[in-house]
Amino acid sequence: MSNPFAQQTAIPGIKKIILVGSGKGGVGKSTVAANLALALKEAGQKVGLLDADIYGPSIPRMFGALHQRPTFTDEGGRTRIQPLVRHGLLLMSMGFIVEENQAVVWRGPMLFKAVDQFLRDVIWGELDYLVVDLPPGTGDVVLTLAQKVPVSGGIVVCTPQNLALVDAKKAVDMFKQVHIPLLGVIENMSYFQPPGGSDRVQLFPRGELNSFLDTNKIAKLGEIPFETAIGLSSEAGIPIVAAEPDGSTAGVFAEVARRMMDLLPNH
Ligand code: ADP
């Protein structure tokens, strides 16, 4: 059987592609992907954010870009797509093409084509990082990406409790199966620090995530606190790192971005 990964071709101009995944929805994968992309940009990198969560794209809303449409241009018979720009990030999402409440039923070949267009027909230009927000779960999109382009690394977003650990393990395994190096895990909603300096509150009970990571020599890239401002800023269409660039949460994301950059070669 031929090697399905032999078809990979790099996208000219894009140095590194990072995939952000999670075993299931609702753990904050899109929130983390968006703020990590912004933190990389704050660190002086040129960054694109591709919302490949085709089943539930949330990047348009998070960036206040609902109902926005990218510009399509004709380049010698080839349609090219000009991504949107927000806070210095290049953005592309299926949500810019289909309405928010319109369900899309994807068949394999359509999905393959959409992912291909997002990668090759979007005018990304020169990027240090293309951060890809994957759909939750362990589906077709990651396999398509892994087959089409060389991916520098995957990141798994999860929450601290044991109920979520089983899904985190599946996401870790997903990257392994498609031969994408795992950069590490980001624990979201790790704790809650009440205003006024009292003790941290463990909103979700801490389970065996840390020992799983230790045993398998997987790095924890960061612990993002639960913060009402994170949710509020996403609702308002300005992710927290852009809304409060000097705040403590932006500092946590800056640290995660720094660790990620250190882990990748040639940086
Ligand atoms: P996923 O992409 O995993 O489905 P989202 O990023 O859409 O998850 O986040 C789900 C909800 O949780 C959103 O309303 C988001 O604003 C909120 N959220 C995510 N992370 C945090 C956090 N650290 N603190 C507070 N709210 C958060």
Summed up, what is this model?
The protein has 267 residues and is of the alpha/beta class. The protein has nine helices and ten strands. The protein is globular, with a radius of gyration of 18 Å.
Kindly describe this structure.
The structure is a single chain. The chain has 267 residues and is an alpha/beta fold. It has one domain (14-262): 3-Layer(aba) Sandwich (Rossmann fold). The protein is built from nine helices and ten strands. It has helices spanning 29-42, 59-62, 108-120, 140-148, 162-177, 209-215, 228-236, 240-243, 248-263; strands at residues 14-21, 47-51, 71-75, 78-82, 84-86, 89-93, 127-133, 153-158, 182-187, 220-223. The strands form two sheets. It has an eight-stranded mixed β-sheet with strand order 5-6-2-7-1-8-9-10, with helices on both faces. Strands 3-4 form a two-stranded antiparallel ribbon. Helix 1 packs across helix 9 (248-263) and helix 3 (108-120) packs across helix 4 (140-148). The mean pLDDT is 92. The site of adenosine-5'-diphosphate (ADP) has 18 residues, from helix 1 and helix 7.
